Amino acid sequence: RRQVLMKRLVDLLRINEGRFTAIILSVMTIAALISLKGNLISGGAVPCMYDEYLVGVLHVVSTFCVPFVLFYILFVERYNQRPMQVIREGSVSNVWKRSVVDLLILTVFFTLYVFVLTTIAGLVFTDRFYNWNELNSRCVAWSGRICEEQPSFVLLLISYIVETFETFLVTGIVMLGVWWGTNKEWAGYLASIALITVDKTDKHKSLIFAKYYISGETYKKGLSISTNIIYPLLAAIIVFALVNVLVRFKKKEFLGS
């Protein structure tokens, strides 16, 4: 089954021209690195590897990666709604299932890509693994105090991966759902961008993304399995299931099918 998924991933990456894929990944990577470095050195504090992931979710994943990832997924998903592909799938429900599976595959791919990118950037931008117990750290600059107990680095990594996956999956499934319901692909894209933008406006009123992100508040509150892992997964599952239920009420027709 792993070979089937890998083959499908390769096929998805080939749907768009190799040049298009390279351009999207390159521009997203450059934008992410510029944002990551700029936010790390802001305030004059000395960053460490822990800071890379805190900055990564809010300032890289949700701000720069989401627009590019959704843009790429949108162009890939166009293929599933072409007349010949619809005929090949045999039914409208199969077209939706194929679209969702492809979304999941691309979500995993981009999640791992961003995680590796953030990790490599961390190794390049800082030579400190952990310094939240030092006065010149970002922890002290943001919270006004040192962190007496070092958070689990493994928990931090898992939180980063889960929150990145949740961000891409939720915005992706909302984009597909709105596109499916309105027959307007860009309506889906803009709806997802609007959703995550509004959600991030006030973290205390956030329901899907920002409330569960590892961020500057982690310096004060630390990491939590429930807040940083379980809740984001539950949010992703709920939105994913809700969209899959709602699309069943839309009588979808394809030109030529």
Q: Would you mind describing this structure in some detail?
A:
This protein is mainly alpha-helical and 257 residues long. 73% of the residues lie in helices and 0% in strands. It has ten helices and no strands. α2 packs antiparallel against α3, α3 packs parallel to α7 (153-182) and α5 (92-125) packs antiparallel against α7 (153-182). The longest helix has 34 residues, at 92-125. It is elongated and about 65 Å long. The model has no long low-confidence stretch (mean pLDDT 89).
Throw out a few tags for this protein.
73% helix, single chain, 257 residues, 10 helices
Q: How many beta-strand runs?
A: 0
User: Span from first to last CA?
Assistant: 30 Å
Largest sheet: none
From the helix content, strand content and strand pairing, which structural class follows? Answer: mainly alpha
Average pLDDT for all residues:
89
* Poorly predicted segments: none
Structure described in brief:
This protein is mainly alpha-helical. It has helices spanning 2-15, 18-41, 49-77, 83-89, 92-125, 138-143, 153-182, 185-201, 218-221, 225-246.
